[in-house]
Amino acid sequence: MKQPRNPHTGRPRTAARVAAVQALFQAEQSGESVETVMDQFIRHRLGRLAGQEGYEDGRVETADVPLFARVLRCAATEAADLDEAIARHLAVGWGMPRLDPVLRAILRAAGAELRDGEGPPARVVIKEYMDIAHGFFSGEEPRFCNGVLDALARTLRAEEFVRP
Questions:
Q1: CB burial class (10 A; 0-12, 13-18, 19+) of residue 146?
Q2: CA distances from residue 44 to 9, 67, 128 in whole angstroms, order as listed
Q3: Contact (CB, 8 A) for 145 and 106
Q4: Does residue 33 belong to any structural domain of this protein?
Q5: For residues 153 and 53, what is the distance between their CA atoms, to the nearest angstrom?
Q6: The CATH number of the domain where 47 resides is what?
Q7: Is 4 part of a structural domain of the chain?
Q8: Cα 4 from chain centroid?
Q9: What's the whole-model pTM score?
Q10: Cα distance between residue 37 and residue 131, in whole Å
Q11: Helices (H), the chain
Q12: Is there a domain that residue 46 lies in?
């Protein structure tokens, strides 16, 4: 999986979201469980190692590990429901398997965070994952992602979109 063009240094929540997307991608591609990949990321890719600086070997020192774990656990435990909810907002004839695997990981991570409801407002979650999508894609994928996430957020957090 290619690394995003602009790693988000100094932004722990964004770093956690990028890592969550990468972990979901890795779990799908390797066939390993999300829990196994999450453990690998926490032990080998997140946080600072003594005597090392920066992003050696893809290490993300600033990631918010509790957010990373919460997104992955929700994505794993709610996988079928999340995929069904995402698929409802895809064009007729487009199922989850037809999506690019990185785009699928972005939608699943964002969907998990939107479903969780403990974090920031839906619009903030969408913006964060749009930034991630722009880091991985330069074509129409971010726009597509925005449309699906907006529709998904209006389903999962309808109360945030009601006008007074």
A1: middle
A2: 18, 17, 24
A3: yes
A4: yes
A5: 37
A6: 1.10.940.10
A7: no
A8: 13
A9: 0.86
A10: 23
A11: 12-30, 34-44, 65-77, 79-87, 101-116, 122-136, 141-156
A12: yes
Task: Count structural domains, the chain.
Answer: 1
Phi, psi of 94 (to 5 degrees): -105, 115
**Per-residue pLDDT reduced to its tens digit, 86-128:** 999 998 888 899 999 999 999 999 999 999 877 899 999 999 9
Full domain range(s) for residue 132: 12-157
| 122 domain residue, yes or no | yes
CA Rg value for the chain:
15
Residues with Cβ < 8 Å from 91, sequence gap 6 or more? none
Torsion of CA 47, 50, 56, 57, to 10 degrees: -70
Q: Minimum mean pLDDT among 14-23, 58-67, 73-82, 116-125: which range?
A: 58-67
99 CB contacts (<8 Å, ≥6 apart)?
A: 90, 107
